[in-house]
Fold this protein.
Amino acid sequence: MTNMEFAFIPAVFLLVGVILAVGGWFLARIIAQHFKGAAGGWSRLSEVYATTRQLPTRLLRRQTIVVGQVLYRNCIAVGFDDTGLYLAPGFPISIFRKRALFVPWSEFKRVEEGRLFWSKAAVLSLGEPLVGTITLPMELFNNAIRPAMGKAATNLPGDAF
């Protein structure tokens, strides 16, 4: 091997390193944009419903929900009491500094049937005008959220289940 061939090898590694760095930068931007959320995502809800309240005692950890168009799988604590619904991000979402949310029952304007994977789900519309949506598994909605809502649950348009 000549000296020219030895000089060529580090240049190839440098070129591959630059390509990987640029590709990683673009990938990081795409991922950051995804977690920023679509309209009605966590960021939009936190502008209106962010809270520093203590989580209630009725708390279900590691729940799967959809906020806007983003799926949060097994990483959200869902709490509820007589005043409203609490959503608190757990690991790994908490490392993105998502703030806990408190949504008063009066802010739930509509409930519709939807799908979460292959199961029935409740799609809850928040705010007037629409601030965002939260999709919960139907079992969670019927067994925990609906009873906690009390009278507010009977006045929701679209509730046919």
Remarks:
- The two ends are 77 Å apart (CA to CA).
- The chain has a mean pLDDT of 82.
